[in-house]
């Protein structure tokens, strides 16, 4: 279980301390699919990076399975089972897809094992396994390869920061299918997704709404989703991909 206690984050802008995250406390129980949503600029992506250890919170504490990880580095958190997927996946010139999967898994994956991970994210393994992770791949392809690396790590907590960013409708439909499969998987993992998309919100177990750096709503999908559709937040929170 992930637990955040009184998390704050202040950014210094032109000599002024700006509160980005304001005293957020929340829990992410094991084996849950949780979507964090809310208006642009509300602090969602910052909170995701704080969980992963990319950004250091100004105050408050973070616990994973009861262990205080507040002062642990991104590397230490990764070793404890936290994975993070960026809005825009990193491109690696000269590194092949199978090399990237082997690095993620931390072992010498066979071609067959690597192909299984690629198949899970809807990629034809023979077309991708030896390709370089570079500019020749589309945004949607890179996104799915990044998710395959998350699967290869066999992590306990996966954090996805706006995974729909920069991909087309076809890739988005595949992304929804991948998340549905991850949610139904018998592998025990908690998934946290930062997203505005209603179709992603619709497969959540729980929804957390963050605005102005604070949690303003939290609960089950059935409880929260009807309260944000058609409200002042709807244009930011639930745009539809057509």
**Runs with pLDDT <50, length 5+?**
none
Strand content: 25-35%
Could you name the CATH class? Alpha Beta
- Report Rg: 18 Å
Number of domains: 1
Number of strands: 12
Structural classification = alpha/beta
CATH topology: Rossmann fold
Main β-sheet description: 6 strands, mixed
CATH architecture: 3-Layer(aba) Sandwich
Count of discrete alpha- or pi-helical segments spanning 4 or more residues: 10
Order of helices and strands: EEEHEEHEEHHHEHEHEHEEHH
CATH superfamily placement: P-loop containing nucleotide triphosphate hydrolases
Average of per-residue pLDDT values: 89
Q: What is the global morphology?
A: globular
Structure description:
The chain is of the alpha/beta class and 242 residues long. The protein has ten helices and twelve strands. It has a single domain (2-237), classed as P-loop containing nucleotide triphosphate hydrolases (Rossmann fold), CATH 3.40.50.300.
Outline of the structure:
The protein is an alpha/beta fold and about 240 residues long. Helix content is about 35%, strand content about 30%. The strands form 3 sheets. The protein has a 6-stranded mixed beta sheet with strand order 6-9-10-3-11-12, sandwiched between helices. Strands 2-1-4-5 form a 4-stranded antiparallel beta sheet. It has a two-stranded antiparallel ribbon with strand order 7-8.
Observed structural traits:
12 strands; Rossmann fold; 35% helix; 6-stranded mixed β-sheet; 4-stranded antiparallel β-sheet; alpha/beta; 30% strand; 242 residues
